[in-house]
Design brief:
Blueprint (H helix, E strand, L loop, with lengths): L2 H9 L5 E5 L5 E5 L8 E5 L2 E4 H10 L7 E6 L2 E6 L19 E2 L6 E10 L2 E10 L10 E2 L21
Parallel strand pairs: 7-10
Antiparallel strand pairs: 1-2, 3-9, 4-6, 5-6, 8-9
Length: 163
């Protein structure tokens, strides 16, 4: 119920973060201020759809990348669709959480799903929480929880999943 977190989700104006081009792996996010372990850094923003709808979208995505975040809430199989860009609630924003890159070895964030009360009602939210102190200019990373053989097979150029 933190008013700052609610406002940041609502406006998609997170402080202390910037986009950065990492050449071969594309755009990512870096910290422009320090974050202490346990801090909420930003959210993974998009429309919440069913897991079945998300898996159907994956079939139509061309290339290596997709901006779909699958999670479970009890018996519910859900997905945050950040693939549909821009999102309908922030048509002029390039939401920051969708650009956080993967690392299974150097992750400094972990996703946490929760339901939050907004003026328009309760909504599912994926928040990124710092799992250790994060320093200025450090790239933000989280473990996508997938491996090459579980994400479209070994034949594709998916070296970023080995990091």
């Amino acid at each position: 119920m933190d008013p700052w977190i609610l406002a940041s989700i609502h406006t998609q104006k997170w402080t202390g973060l910037a986009f950065k081009d990492f050449d071969a792996k594309g755009q990512g996010v870096v910290a422009t201020k320090s974050f202490v372990k346990g801090s909420i850094v930003c959210d993974y923003h998009g429309k919440v759809i069913t897991g079945a709808e998300g898996r159907k979208m994956i079939e139509s995505i061309q290339g290596d990348m997709g901006y779909l975040f699958f999670f479970r809430d009890g018996e519910q199989d859900l997905c945050v669709d950040a693939e549909t860009f821009p999102c309908e609630c922030h048509p002029t924003e390039n939401t920051i959480g969708r650009r956080i890159n993967h690392s299974s070895k150097r992750a400094n964030l972990m996703p946490v799903h929760c339901r939050m009360n907004f003026p328009e009602g309760r909504m599912y939210v994926i928040l990124f929480k710092a799992i250790r102190d994060i320093h200025i200019c450090e790239e933000l990373l989280f473990d996508y929880g997938v491996k090459r053989n579980s994400f479209r097979g070994e034949g594709l150029n998916l070296e970023w999943l080995d990091e």
